[in-house]
Design a protein that fits this description.
alpha/beta, Rossmann fold, 5-stranded parallel sheet
Length: about 140
């Protein structure tokens, strides 16, 4: 296997301890999956920080043009960009204090994975954070 996600127990621990999620690619279109997933995660108690140079604010939070410009502590970097953009986002992520890189369902890039693993990141790819939260964390 070229890349491998952490165990469900590790993912559960990440979701239970995280407070802030920077969402790369979040925009203000309520019809988009990125908006819907981010809104649900916000409703679950996470602070969502939009990272997108084309918007000023999303879900009541100030947006930043890049991860490097986010002044607050980030617990999870959640990426909604096409796979070919992941290496660029990974390089930017490596310049932050965050150590969890999460690429949404359908998004994976082997080069980005290896780059981040070499820098001690926990890397999750091709998995929806909202679904993982619903299955591993939410109490019914």
């Amino acid at each position: 296997m070229v890349w491998e996600n952490p165990s469900n127990a590790e993912i559960k621990n990440i979701l239970e301890t995280a407070k802030t999620i920077a969402v790369v690619g979040l925009n203000d279109n309520p019809g988009k999956t990125v908006y819907q997933v981010s809104k649900v995660m916000q409703q679950q108690g996470y602070r969502i920080i939009p990272v997108n140079p084309t918007v000023d604010e999303v879900l009541g939070e100030k947006a930043y043009p890049s991860l490097k410009e986010v002044p607050d502590k980030i617990d999870i970097i959640n990426v909604f960009r096409r796979p070919e953009f992941l290496p660029e986002v990974a390089e930017e992520a490596a310049e932050t204090d965050c150590s969890v890189f999460w690429a949404q369902l359908g998004i994976a890039n082997e080069a980005a994975y290896h780059y981040l693993k070499e820098r001690d990141f926990t890397v999750i790819m091709d998995l929806c954070i909202k679904v993982a939260h619903a299955v591993l964390v939410e109490k019914i």
